[in-house]
Every structure is written in structure tokens, then in C-alpha cells.
Amino acid sequence: SGRSVDHSTLSTAESPWRVVALPWTDEDGKPGGVCYIGLSLSDQLDTVKTLTRYCIIVGVAIVILGALLATLMTQRTLSPLKRIEKTAAKIAAGDLTQRVPPAPENTEVGSLSVSLNAMLTRIEQSFHEQEETTAKMKRFVSDASHELRTPLAAIHGYAELYKMQRDLPGALGRADESISHIEDSSTRMTVLVEDLLSLARLDEGRGIDITQQVPLTTLVTDATEDLHALDPGREIRRGTLTFQPRNGDEPADLEFVEGPLPDVMLKGDGSRLRQVVTNIVGNIHRYTPADSPVEISVGVMPASISPESLARMSANDASMRYFIEAVDVSRSMQMGMNYAVVRFSDHGPGVPENSRSKIFERFYTADPSRARLKGGTGLGMAIAQSVVKAHKGFICATDSQGGGLTLTVVLPVAPLEPKIAVGEPPQDAKAERKAERNKAKQEKQQARQHKSE
Q: Which is the most buried residue in 78, 303, 384, 447, by most CB within 10 A?
């Protein structure tokens, strides 16, 4: 026919059909024909196409969204590593003060940050120690060259003078004078070289045996008698060094009680420890008036600090106060290490506070002219400090009551045995934890002190 067909009808007609053939019969039961029933599948096909397009669109959206989320999560996860990379670049450029930004320690990046920061702290500390060692070595070589050049120049000068005057009248007397000056200069140079060799051996860990049983009181007594022989008119008081606990606003301190020196035995190198007390007594003889009094005392007291930490402490007033606080903590907690403390207090001109730690530097002399007159080399206290540190001990210089200088030597004796009364239960876990917290607090304070120095 000439009628137009709409698109929907055409699409339905062109779509697949589902057809069912049903035979039918008439009233007499004779076959009358076949009836065909058809159903177009266009609606089902449209539904399938719509669902297919929807699934494709949703799938593509999910993939894109997943990619975006994965990118964001990756960037967020790797951002700490990017910061670590930037920090590493700054460190590689020479800035050792940089640290990796912190992160939660329960994550892998956080654990890595903590480990890297600890490593960087050790590296920075080692680098600064190396710089200090290099600077000290350069200064040491320069000072040693200067000190050796002086007696060598004297020897050379007097030898030249003898050659110039040996043919003149009275040459024999002038020769004896020249030889005497040459002998004095060579003696001074010999002493200087021996001190330099002692320091070199101590720096290398050689020339010392700390396994001997040393009567410390005998060494101090001998040094006291040597000082009396050098300065017969000097008043020398001996006594016991005791701990004075805190009293109100007054901090805890060490107190001198006049009397006989207590007997103290410890493991160490007897000859080296004798050298320490001899050098200290020699400094008192050189730099203080011959009639000024001196107090020499010995004591044994516990302290809640390890010998290794003690040996790392700087030779200054703050370290001495830290040791006294450690003694106070140990007395209350009944824990720590027993230490022998030897103190030499003079009442001479003293040393300014900003120069006290320098007396342990090599070739440092508070009064160079007097040291040269008395035969000092400026190495005695440096040797004393090296020997004490080799014994895991501590030496420092502080001011004396009434003026002057006090040198204190602390040496480990033995671990402290806790005292438990009969019937008294041992220290409980709470007290032990408190002692551990106090010890950790002290170690942190010491670390901050070393860092500030």
C-alpha cells in the first residue's frame, strides 16, 4: 500500500522474531491448517543494548576513578620518600644538620625515618669529632714544632757562639757556659719528646695496663710528700672527701674532712696513675706561691653513671655538678658504681672560668714564663686527662673555696652492691623503674650538655 511506515514499526519488523506454529482442526477432527503466532524481539534487543552501553560507561568510569585514586595514594605514600630524597640531596651538598621529616613510627616510612635520623646524628657527631681531632692535630703539630724549635735554636746558637769564640782568650770558660746552656736545652727537649711519645702511645691505646691492683692512697701520699719536699714551707692538709647532701637552698656538694687518708685499692696502671698525681702536684708547685695552703683528700662514693659515660664527660663545672647529682641519686636508690674521688685544692691565683677546661689542652700553660722557668712543657695535664680517660675516669678543674684551683680525679672502683637489711624486702619494681627513669633523664641531660658544647 502507499502508506508510510514509522521507524519504530520498521525496526520491530526488521528485528528477529520468535514464532510458534500451532496446528488446528475443525469440528470433525480433521486438520484444518496451521496457526503461526509470532513475537518480535526488538524490545529485548534494545534492553540488552542499553545495559551493554551502561556497563561499558560504568566500567570505563570505574577504571578512570581507580587510576586517579591509585595515583593520589601512590603520591601520598611516596611523598615522605620524596622528602627523604630532598633531605638526602641537602646532606650530600654538605648540610649535615638536615634531618628526615618525622612520620608515624608504626609505618615502614616512619621506621625508616627514625633509623635514618639516628644514623645522621651519629654521622654528624663523628664528622664534628673528626673535625675537632684534625684541628687539634694541626694545632698540636704547630705547637710541637714551636716548642721543639726553641731548644734547638738555643743549641744551635750556643754551638755557633762556641765556634766563634774558641780561639779567643778565656775560651774555656765560655765553652763551659755554652755547653751548660746546650745541656739544659737538650734536657728540656728530651722531656718534651718523652711527653709527646707518651701522648702518642695513649692516643693509640698503647703503653698502659689497667689490670694491676693499685694502692691509690699510697700514690697520693707519695705525691703529698713530694710536694712537701719541693715546698717545705707550704701547709698541706690531708683528709677524707665526703658527700654533703642538699640542705635547703644549698645544692649537694663534696666536703673535705681533715684526717688520715682512707685506704683505696682499684684496678689500673700504677705507674700511669702515679704520673697523674705527680703532674698535678707539679702544677701546684709551679703555679702557686710556695707558702699557700693545699688540701688533698680521697674518698669513695657511689654514683648512678656508667664509667663509659663518665669518660665522655667534658672537663668543666657542669660535668662536676652532674657527677654530684649522680652521687645523690645513687645514695637514694642504692644502685650504680663505686668511684674513687681524689681532690687537690690549692689557694693560688687560680684560673678564670673560661680557661679552666683549656688547662687539659696540649701545650697550654696559664703562665708560660713561669712554666718555662720551672721546666714545664704544657703537656702534663693533657697526659693526666688521657690516662684518666683510659681508666674510664673523669678529671676536671673547678674553683676552690676561698680562691684558687681544685682538680678532681674520679676513677671507677667496683659495681655497687645494694644493701638490704635483715627482714627488709628488696627494692620493688616501682622503685627500679623510677631509678631507670632518673638514669635516662640524666643521660639525656648529659647529651644536651655535650650538644651545647
A: 303
